[in-house]
Amino acid sequence: MSAYTSLESMDDKLDAQMSLGVRIRAVDVKDVAHRVITRHLLPDIQGSLKRFTGQQLRCPKCNSKYRRIPLRGACYCGNKLTLTVHEAGVSKYLEKAKAIGMTYGVPAYTIQRIALLESAINSLFQSDKVKNSKLDEFL
Ligand SMILES: [Zn+2]
Description:
The structure is a single chain. It contains 6 helices and 3 strands, in the order αααβββααα. The longest helix is centred in the first third of the chain and has 25 residues, at 29-53. By secondary structure, the chain is mainly alpha-helical. It has a 3-stranded antiparallel sheet, with no helix packed on it. The chain has helices at residues 3-6, 10-23, 29-53, 87-91, 94-104, 108-125, and strands spanning 57-58, 65-66, 82-83. A hairpin with a 6-residue loop joins strand 1 (57-58) and strand 2. The structure holds zinc ion.
């Protein structure tokens, strides 16, 4: 049985891989961090960001699926619709990518790519509603 199956979460697998990289002298841990971020974490975040915006809606009661929200705003059986892709699934690896990037000093360009994805995620999930500002906030 390989360590890949004995370690349960992706976090554990990543931590194990990075800790090996630190201990084995033949491994360039900075390069490992860079590869993990650019080949696995970033494409995963980008993919789930894309899936979130194009996702289907599902009715938990009758299990029918919709490509977009019906005009009545709910399922035709009257039940509320739920998302099939959730926010947590989109930003799951963002914190990990940031942490690894900072710890192992990946190139500035990669740090910027992570920051760009973070701002894309924030722009998608944070409400754009105008806040009522008080006058003293401008002082
Ligand atoms: Zn329904």
